[in-house]
Structures are given as structure tokens and as C-alpha cells.
């Protein structure tokens, strides 16, 4: 009786929306580290806002400074909410990450708690109260809540949002360095004694710094996803790198939306002091939108370039030697017969010879 081989059982298909399963220890450490960095950045910005408010004796100046720094603080709250949400998801992944509702609930609670602590730090840290501080507190809460919620919308959303948060943190640092070096940069980009030359130099600085920040964001996002892919020993599809590279710019746009909606009263108050304040706020609003779009496209493009550099190249069809391919094993079902020549003659020839 001829024995028949039993085919091996097919492996269970992997769901299309499944997030790679990194090694637990490494993924938790990476997520907790990111959460700590984003919280430290948010705390630094809150401290800066509180120091500015404490040093300001003029109510008009305090409102103007708060309105100018509001988008940056909300962006930091978004990053902190996303970082904390992903860290909590990683810690509770084995028990609560398998179904939609518990995963989303954990992400929302993590973002809400982060926002509540940040808002309390601003409101109680200032001590004087007022509408500007209250609006800032609510905006911080909203930013962190949205950032945390984003990590629980989809199984793969946590990893992509974490990569975007890491890249967004790099963007925030780059923008801060630009602001600290604004004086020398204005001279470098051609600012003169006239207001027109100063505005033109500022526009050049915004465009160039946004391109550089987007490139940095793309590299950081690619590095985060590549590390997660190595830990999970799986290859992520290329759209994941596109989304992660574009995520910092998208988060900047979300922060701008929260600023326009949640801080509308504060922005309106800052515009109402004079025509100069009105023009300054309008220019700042347009500049933030343009910068966010540049960061979005530059980050996505850079992440794809980094991914393409890691892919294996195709063999050259014009190369006569060609790459040495893997050896093809002999078919065990057809044993070698030494009596059969390598190039057997046609059977018809044998008949005619006979």
C-alpha cells in the first residue's frame, strides 16, 4: 500500500488590522520611555507659560503671550496624551487590548487623566485665575484627551500614533531651537531695517525650518517603526511608514483645530487690543497652518525614502553572470537511474533502428 503524505495544517490567518506583536519587555520599555519624554516636554512648556504669566504685570501682555504660546502647549498636550495612552495600552495589552471597547476606554481614561493633571498644574500654579488661564487649562485637557483617544481607535493606531508622537517631539524641539535662535536667523535670512524685510526673512525661516522639521520627523518615525518591526520579527506594510511620517503634521493640524475652537475667546481677546495685534495674530495663524502642511508632506516623503533605502535591490537583467540563486534540490520522488542517459534518444529512432 502506498503511503500518502498528510498535508500540514494551514496556519491561522493574521487579521488585516492586527498590530505587530513586539516582544513585551522591549515594547513596554519603549512606550514608557516615550511617555516620560512627552510628559517632561509638557511640564517644561507649562513651567514656561507660568513663568511668563508670573513675570507679566500687564494684563494685555499676559493675554497676548498666552495666545501666542497656546498652540505649542496644546501640541505638547497631544503628544503627552498619545505617549501615556500608548504606554498604558502596552502595560495592559494582555488583558484589555483584544477587544474594541476596553482598548478604547483605557486610551480615553489615560488621555483624560493626563489632561486633568496638566490643566490643574496651570490653573493652580498661576494662582491668580482669570479667563486666559482657565481657557488654557481646558485646552490642555482637550489636547491630552484627543491624543490619548487616538491610540485606542484601532489595533494598529497605538503603534502609529506612538511613532507620530516620537516624531512630533522631535518637531517640537526643532521649533523651540528655531525660536531661541530667531535673532541670528533673521540676520542670516536677510532681515534689514524695514518691516518688509523682517517679514520676508521670517517667512523664509518658517518655510526652511518646517522642511527641516518634517525631514527630521520622517527619520524619527521610520526609526520607531523599524525598531518595532525588528522586535516583532515582522515586516510592516509601506503605508504604515507613510502614515507615521505624516502623523506629526497631522497632529499639528489637530492642535490648530483645538486652538481655534477651544481658544477662540482667548484669540479673539488678543486680536481686539489693536490693529497691530490683529495683523500679528492673523499672520501667526497662517504661518502655523503652512508649517503643519509642510511638516506633514515632508515627513511622509522622508519616511518613504528611508524605507526605500532599506529594501533589497532588484537583480540586473543585463548582467550575464546574474546573482547566484539558491540551489534547486532534486525531486525525491524521481530517483536517479544510472542506466538512463542524460540526453535520451527519441524512441522513434530506436524503432527505426530495430
Could you characterize what this model shows?
This protein has 354 residues and is an all-alpha fold. It has one domain (24-310). The protein has 12 helices and no strands. Helix 2 (59-91) runs parallel beside helix 5 (131-150), helix 2 runs antiparallel to helix 6 and helix 4 packs antiparallel against helix 5. It is globular.
Q: What is the makeup of the main sheet?
A: none
Distance between the first and last residues' Cα:
38 Å
Oligomer: single chain
Q: Into which percentage range does the β-strand content fall?
A: under 5%
- List the uncertain runs: 1-18, 324-334, 336-354
Note the total helix count: 12
What structural class should be given to the helix and strand makeup? mainly alpha
Helix content: over 70%
Count all strands and give the number: 0
Taken together, the total number of domains comes to: 1
Can you give the mean pLDDT?
Answer: 79
- The rounded Rg comes to 29 Å
Brief synopsis:
The protein is mainly α and 354 residues long. The chain has one domain. It has twelve helices and no strands.
Topology:
Blueprint lengths: L23 H32 L3 H33 L1 H4 L3 H27 L4 H20 L6 H24 L1 H7 L6 H38 L5 H25 L1 H8 L3 H36 L36 H7 L1
Amino acid at each position: 500500500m502506498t503511503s500518502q503524505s498528510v498535508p500540514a495544517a494551514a496556519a491561522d490567518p493574521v487579521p488585516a488590522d492586527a498590530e505587530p506583536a513586539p516582544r513585551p519587555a522591549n515594547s513596554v520599555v519603549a512606550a514608557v520611555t516615550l511617555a516620560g519624554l512627552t510628559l517632561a516636554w509638557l511640564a517644561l512648556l507649562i513651567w514656561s507659560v507660568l513663568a511668563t504669566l508670573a513675570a507679566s504685570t500687564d494684563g494685555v501682555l499676559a493675554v497676548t503671550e498666552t495666545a501666542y504660546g497656546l498652540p505649542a502647549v496644546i501640541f505638547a498636550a497631544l503628544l503627552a496624551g498619545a505617549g501615556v495612552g500608548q504606554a498604558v495600552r502596552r502595560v495592559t495589552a494582555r488583558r484589555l487590548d483584544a477587544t474594541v471597547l476596553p482598548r478604547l476606554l483605557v486610551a480615553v481614561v489615560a488621555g483624560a487623566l493626563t489632561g486633568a493633571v496638566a490643566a490643574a498644574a496651570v490653573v493652580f500654579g498661576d494662582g491668580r485665575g482669570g479667563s486666559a488661564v482657565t481657557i488654557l487649562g481646558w485646552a490642555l485637557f482637550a489636547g491630552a484627551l484627543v491624543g490619548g483617544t487616538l491610540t485606542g481607535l484601532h489595533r494598529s493606531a497605538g503603534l502609529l500614533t506612538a511613532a507620530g508622537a516620537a516624531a512630533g517631539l522631535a518637531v517640537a524641539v526643532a521649533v523651540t531651537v528655531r525660536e531661541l535662535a530667531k535673532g541670528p536667523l533673521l540676520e542670516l535670512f536677510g532681515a534689514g531695517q524695514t518691516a518688509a524685510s523682517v517679514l520676508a526673512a521670517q517667512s523664509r525661516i518658517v518655510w526652511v525650518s518646517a522642511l527641516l522639521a518634517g525631514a527630521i520627523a520622517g527619520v524619527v518615525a521610520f526609526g520607531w517603526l523599524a525598531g518595532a518591526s525588528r522586535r516583532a520579527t515582522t515586516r510592516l506594510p509601506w503605508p504604515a511608514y507613510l502614515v507615521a511620517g505624516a502623523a506629526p503634521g497631522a497632529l499639528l493640524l489637530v492642535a490648530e483645530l483645538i486652538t481655534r475652537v477651544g481658544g477662540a475667546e482667548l484669540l479673539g481677546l488678543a486680536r481686539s487690543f489693536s490693529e497691530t495685534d490683529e495683523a500679528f495674530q492673523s499672520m501667526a495663524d497662517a504661518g502655523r497652518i503652512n508649517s503643519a502642511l509642510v511638516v506633514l508632506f515632508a515627513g511622509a516623503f522622508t519616511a518613504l525614502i528611508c524605507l526605500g533605502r532599506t529594501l533589497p535591490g532588484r537583480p540586473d537583467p543585463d548582467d550575464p553572470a546574474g546573482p547566484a540563486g539558491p540551489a534547486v534540490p532534486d525531486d525525491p520522488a524521481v530517483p536517479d537511474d544510472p542506466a538512463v542517459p542524460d540526453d535520451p534518444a527519441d524512441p522513434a529512432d530506436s524503432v527505426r533502428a530495430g
